[in-house]
Amino acid sequence: MTDMRSPTEARPSEARNRLLSTATRLFYTEGIHSVGIDRIVMEAQVTRATLYRHFTGKEELVLAYLNEADRALRGQAEEVIAAGLPPADTIRAISASIAQGIQSPGFRGCAFLNAAAEYPDPESPVHQAVLAHRQWFLDTVTEQLARIQKPGAEAAARHFVMMRDGAMAAGCLFDPDLICETLLHGSERLLEVYTATGEQNPAS
């Protein structure tokens, strides 16, 4: 996912930071469509003119919100990968990071899945931003699994992403501890089966 900030946004200001942090909190906790510009302006304690100096409109503010979420998640993954663990342990660490997020206070599901539900049009820039983030995550998991064995890596990664999606959706509806336990167990089982498949086919 590329940095969607305009040249104006590339020069951070206190007002812009307040606008983005306010929008992030409201969009994530209450939903994007249910939060209007007036509410964001009021809670960020800025004027409409200030908002439009930094963002062309609500859609650009939504894209900035998703861009920040994307950066945070990429940073977490990069930190795990930089630790230089064996690939299976890297997948376990990514799973643990997801579980930690689900168990955090105020968890309301995946910001990207939530945004996709509100912007179903495939041509929408917001929907495209969601797809770009998800492609990055799939590619990241695929790359780690391919370090174990290349055949079947993408299929196994899609399985992992589906488990992650299910856990993120269920984590704010049911007991998050049980959801995380299920996710971690499922991830471990996926690794066991995937690794065993490679051992049974040494030529791969």
From TrEMBL:
- Taxonomic superkingdom: Bacteria
HTH tetR-type domain segment(s):
13-73
Known PROSITE patterns for this protein?
A: HTH_TETR_2
The protein's UniProt keywords, in alphabetical order, are:
DNA-binding, Transcription, Transcription regulation
Q: Which residues bind DNA?
A: 36-55
**GO molecular-function annotation terms?**
DNA binding
Asked if Transcription regulation is a keyword of the record, the answer is yes
Protein name as it appears in the record: TetR family transcriptional regulator
Species the sequence originates in: Nonomuraea fuscirosea
